[in-house]
Amino acid sequence: MEENHNMNIMVYGAGAIGCHIGYCMHATGNTVYLVGRGEHYKQMWGNGMHIKICDNEILKHEQVIKKDSLFQIVNDVKNIKDVKFDYIFITVKLGDYNENALQSLYPFMGKDTAVVPPCTKLPFWWFYNLEGKFNKKYKDIDFDQQLSKYFVRENIICMTMWLSSVIESPGNVCVKHIQRGYPLKEVYPKMKDHADKLRNIFESTCKSPEVDDIRSEIYIKSINSFAFNTVALDREFNNLQLSQDEYSKDCIRRIMTEGDQILKILGLPIIQSIEDRISQTLSSTKHTLSMLNDYRNGHQIELGYLWEGFNSFCKILKIDMEFSKYMYEKVMDKVCMRQSSAVSNK
Fold first, then answer.
1. Cα→Cα distances 278→97, 105, 252, 257, 282, Å
2. What is the C-alpha to C-alpha distance for residues 109 and 87, in angstroms, rounded to an integer?
3. pTM of the model
4. By CB neighbour count within 10 A (0-12 exposed, 13-18 middle, 19+ buried), where does 209 fall?
5. Rounded mean pLDDT of 226-230?
6. N or C: which end of the chain has fewer CB within 10 A?
């Protein structure tokens, strides 16, 4: 890939993270197509995307990026004509990561287009190209055939997202704190040049550390999200409150400890200790976890999608995550009761 090549990049999902990715890609001179919807899209289309980059309470950078030939803001990929994309980021919520979305994206996935799918849920490609004794035993396992059929697995770049970001109001995004930024790695050797180029882009505006084992990286991201969001929903605590509550932190430890069994059984490295993970996440002291925000605003939460992945692993590897299951079911009972109450009060 040529170093000075101006690339075409689609960010499918203009949430808080998607907008920050669009900002990073635009800042390095690439052509960005940011796909949004609703009032957030309307405000960005009319007034530009207003983004603030903070280090907790310290504002580091602020910018308004208005739509032009290098920063396209669209509400439907059908409005994108005759564009060959170098990268496609899929940054929608897990509830919107479905067959309909992938059908609309499929025509843009060229033979050399690198695709970065969501990182929070354990991915369908987990056992493909897995080294070691489990490769032969589990190589044909596919977690989600309805989604996987739209991907060329060799074109996938896995990227995790370690930053606290929120849409403060339609058109206005605030990155509250950047922890590790965007660690990433190709899943297959074919995409190594694309992954290296992408890392360089992120490094010029944010962070993107190199990782040795991308499966360990994405697994730890997923168990981290499941543990913190489960406990935050149970306690209804933001990060600062979680950091000051030993019971909450102990629950997070127990979930992570159960989850780490999976890496140990598969012989994959645990690249970050539980205490480091807890400290890293709670360093964003002003942050409220996304699912607690959704719960408070009456929106669907994504916890079920995360648990679905872990539950599948438990069945495949014949292990138990009893405390995690108990906490998950406790939280979902609470969510269902609130939803039922809201319906009955209408």
1. 28, 36, 8, 12, 6
2. 9
3. 0.86
4. middle
5. 97
6. C
